[in-house]
Amino acid sequence: MPDQSARAAAAVDSRRLWEDLRNLAQLGARADGGVGRLALDENDVKARLWLVEQGRALGCSVRMDAAANVFLRLPGGDENLPPVVTGSHMDSQPAGGAYDGAYGVLAGLAALRAVHEARIATRRPLEVVAWTNEEGVRFSPGTSGSACFVGVRSLEETRALTDGEGISFGEAADACLARLEAQGVPTADFATPMSAFVELHIEQGPVLERAGARAGVVTGIQGVSWFEFTVRGTANHAGTTPRAARRDALEGACALAVALREQARDDADETRFTIGRFRVSPDSVNTIPDEAVFTVDLRDPDQARLDALEATFRDLAAGEWAGCSVEVTRLSRIDPVVFPDAVTGAVAEAAERDLCMEAPRLMSGAFHDAIHLARHCPTGMIFIPCKDGVSHHPAESITPDQAEDGARLLAATLVRLAEVA
Amino acid sequence: MPDQSARAAAAVDSRRLWEDLRNLAQLGARADGGVGRLALDENDVKARLWLVEQGRALGCSVRMDAAANVFLRLPGGDENLPPVVTGSHMDSQPAGGAYDGAYGVLAGLAALRAVHEARIATRRPLEVVAWTNEEGVRFSPGTSGSACFVGVRSLEETRALTDGEGISFGEAADACLARLEAQGVPTADFATPMSAFVELHIEQGPVLERAGARAGVVTGIQGVSWFEFTVRGTANHAGTTPRAARRDALEGACALAVALREQARDDADETRFTIGRFRVSPDSVNTIPDEAVFTVDLRDPDQARLDALEATFRDLAAGEWAGCSVEVTRLSRIDPVVFPDAVTGAVAEAAERDLCMEAPRLMSGAFHDAIHLARHCPTGMIFIPCKDGVSHHPAESITPDQAEDGARLLAATLVRLAEVA
Fold first, then answer.
1. B387 and chain A: CB distance < 8 Å anywhere?
2. Where in the numbering of this chain does the Peptidase M20 dimerisation domain appear (chains A, B) (predicted)?
């Protein structure tokens, strides 16, 4: 079996993978070198049609589901066994790069091609999936396709999401599905069984690059809580109101922000605390603000620490800040996911034995479709480094060698999980 | 002479003043009870035409100047002497109240009526002026009329200011002047000599109300500096970037804001420090901000203290804040003004001797047209309390008794300054 997985890794056509990446980046290409391909827009639909073509050329059967997720399937020796699935998403940020998501789909395609061309007969079928609307830019929240597939969100609520122009996810998905149907792509149900799911992705962070690692075994996905803090004071004239008579919402918000950040400061540098939005009203140079609203994005691999920090945050907010009151709302919460040894072990062994590659273990700081798949089947992820850890930006970048490393590791992992007949 | 000034105070028709306030508030009345009368808009023009009518009914000569300032003049015993002038502005904030500015003009009219009806013959002429675009909302910066009148800004640069719809101050002023000209109002030069200028205004702060005072002798206008601080870091993913790898512009901005505020904290509670605008980019929940921009409105009666604080602010900004660099820009600076004893003394004596009123001395925290007039002639101001110190808001409020107190004090002050023949 190790022989077969190493063979699959070696059979990856990294030149073709790089061509595919360049070609896909043309769909939604930006003048600044970035990619803006929003979920279910014309370029995203074209990307799906192109993927279907590639799959068929390789001898895959193709299917779609009601959330416009697209699957390519390479038959296994035992078609009664659930498939080993890989994939990611093809939509991007409006000013995004060519690799976030797209790389996972195209490297999956490259892995299936390698298995096919090396004539490796796996017991289980192999599939590549492109999940719909991971980014959540055009329709919010994101990870729509994977969330509907596993059932953590209903198709109805997802279809009702609307974009900035009032077009619903449902309308956009129907239009996309009609184009796929015209190409003879049949529809399948959600939640079809999977033997395992492995998502390959750029790290979107600096850890692997700083460690000089070629790939990483992702051990899970951090839990994340989003909070909104609203600090309420009294608007007044900046020139005429003595300090003692003020209830300055901005003063309270800054002091509270500093205090919250201090609480989240851990020696191990594992907890991630970010205030990303901060707005003040009336936002006038000479008016004391009556309201300041800011968000906190709090992440930690440890659920107990997330809970403890939330309790501390609520205690702090219950106090008075520059005479102002504070309201805390939890906007969302996703519990940490720990990937099972069955999958992380397969990735680690493929790295070590098939590729002689050191692949450190790390948690994912970002969401991925894998967070939902983890509820559905044994799931894991592989990361490759990206330049300066940058993503969601036109400057997002990987080298052809890095693209090859990840695709080879993915191919070997898939063969290990799918077993050679 | 005290007899005549006390007689003038007693002759104020406070009922009619209150009616005038109610009538003027109809021009630009808002559904919420506030007033939105922007500079040189249809309501502001109508207010000028109405003021001209009132002046003529009282036997005043009227005139206008190229900035659309309107003057009513009650003759004095010696028409060769420069007049004693009072007045304020009639434009308001978009969601303003009925008293900020308008009260000073209408109480001036009431004072002239009182002098006229009590047949008090002053040596110097008495004038009421309505200055154009004090608020600076439609055309920014404000205090346009008084700034052009005294020559601190040129008419040319003021005429070039444009509103949100691309209409210039010059076009709007010309249209207003044509309407006034059609009523036979002649044009006069800027910078005509004045013997004194006294502006009556609501305090727009809580000091008099908290002291239980009916009026205040304004000793000067605080100096004010406006700064903009731009904190620059690096945008990155909130979930994937360890704390040690961050340069978080919001973290730096909050820490800097707290430090600046601490430096401006004086025991006497005279320095006013306000951060009114605060913006962060890209303003996304899960992105570490790469830029945070905030303003500081800093006021102090003491020029040396303003200078020292500016130097301290620049020293602080030269440091590193959460790894970020900081740029400081001074947006504007107006030096403090101290009103001369000749005028503050006349106000204080009128309060004490003519009205048996305790009128504490206080600095003005807000700008007023008087800040420019102080460069032109001996200038002073009178404040009356307003409810909760609130202004620039539909809730801005004074009682009829308070309106009467201020108008009586103004009438007595004007007679004292204009001398009885």
1. no
2. 220-318
